[in-house]
Structure formats: structure tokens, C-alpha cells
Amino acid sequence: MQPTPLRPRERDELVDTPAEIVARLNNEVNAALVDATFRSRFANLGVEGFATSLPELAAFIGDYTQSWGKVIRAAGIKAE
Fold first, then answer.
1. How crowded is residue 32: how many other Cβ atoms within 10 Å of its Cβ?
2. How far apart are CA 71 and CA 74, in angstroms?
3. Bridge partners of 4?
4. pLDDT value at 3 more than 60
5. How many other CB atoms are there within 10 angstroms of residue 77's CB atom?
6. Are 58 and 80 in contact (CB under 8 A)?
7. Does the reported pTM lie above 0.70?
8. pLDDT digits over 7-22, tens only?
9. What pLDDT score was predicted for residue 68?
10. Which H, E and C letters describe the chain, residue by residue?
11. What's residue 76's pLDDT?
12. Residue ranges of the domains in the chain?
């Protein structure tokens, strides 16, 4: 099944991205995040980005998801 704006890719579908592509994207994003002009544009949008390694990013996303999951469950929030 193809992803659409209403149906994002499933987690398992993302595993097929070749490691060299993921590494290159990570390198390019990290390079942008240390560029002063790029950081300034992000700051104007209220975004604070940070350069990180792939394992650090995975840990950050896992921790972030887990902590917000607790908040959502505690508040009884349900998807509509």
C-alpha cells in the first residue's frame, strides 16, 4: 500500500531505506544545523534544532515518544 497524506508509512516500511541513504541524510542535516544562516531561519520559526548521531537521535525519539505517551495515557486522550 502506498503512503498518502492521510496514511503515512508504517514503521516497518521505513526499514527498507538503505543505510548509506540514511547516513547521508543525517550528515547533510547535521551540516545544515551548524550553519548560522540556517539556524537563524529556524530560530525565527521558533525551532531549535540540534546535530546528533543516528543512535542519539533514535534514543531521543524513543525517550520523547515514551514521555509524551505517558502524558497522553494519563490524560485519557484518544485519537479521533
1. 15
2. 5
3. 7
4. no
5. 9
6. no
7. no
8. 555 555 556 788 899 8
9. 94
10. CCCECCECCCHHHHHHCCHHHHHHHHHHHHHHHCCHHHHHHHHHCCCCCCCCCHHHHHHHHHHHHHHHHHHHHHHCCCCC
11. 95
12. 15-75
